[in-house]
Design brief:
This protein is mainly alpha-helical. 66% of the residues lie in helices and 6% in strands.
């Protein structure tokens, strides 16, 4: 089974939390200051949730490809931190929405699985970039694609930092171990 019912519920929780957390950072209409603006949350879900959800599911499906046991977990502490920072209008945003627990893997499997998540962000950065460059679009679509491009660029770069617990460290250490360095 690709996703258990519990994992599906966790993904829904993460999706709506991400929509709320990013709702003030991305807008396709003039700023109307409401504590809970459903249209802004929907726009944020459209832009930010795929960046996080596809990143985590890419890890999960890559591990499953290798025959490993996996499970997606929501990080309720990480989501709460993001919600609190957003609620107090913090000038920065730090949160960890979820993670995939993976059974024992080899060094090269670990490196590949770790890279697949940021690879999803790289594709979600490059595809909107190409569309924006070569296609004339309406204002709302352009704003959504531009924000998608920026969020995924930041997630790709941030996640490839070779310092634990980022994916970049797992890629680096997995490759070093595989090559016996």
């Amino acid at each position: 089974m690709l996703l258990s019912a519990l994992e599906f519920i966790r993904l829904i929780i993460v999706t709506f939390a991400i929509g709320y957390i990013f709702s003030d950072y991305v807008s396709t209409h003039p700023q109307i200051h409401k504590r809970f603006d459903w249209s802004k949350i929907k726009t944020a879900i459209t832009i930010a949730a795929p960046a996080v959800i596809l990143h985590e599911l890419s890890h999960k499906f890559a591990a499953m490809f290798f025959g490993l046991k996996t499970e997606f977990f929501a990080s309720y502490f990480g989501l709460a931190l993001g919600i609190i920072l957003k609620s107090v209008n913090a000038p920065f945003l730090v949160f960890m929405p979820g993670y995939v627990s993976i059974s024992q893997s080899t060094a090269i499997q670990s490196a590949i699985i770790a890279f697949i998540g940021p690879l999803a962000n790289l594709l979600l950065w490059l595809i909107p970039s190409m569309i924006l460059k070569y296609k004339t679009l309406g204002e709302k679509t352009s704003i959504i694609l531009y924000a998608t491009k920026k969020i995924n660029m930041m997630l790709f770069i941030f996640n490839m930092i070779p310092i634990p617990p980022f994916d970049g460290s797992k890629v680096l250490f997995g490759l070093l171990s595989y090559f016996g360095i």
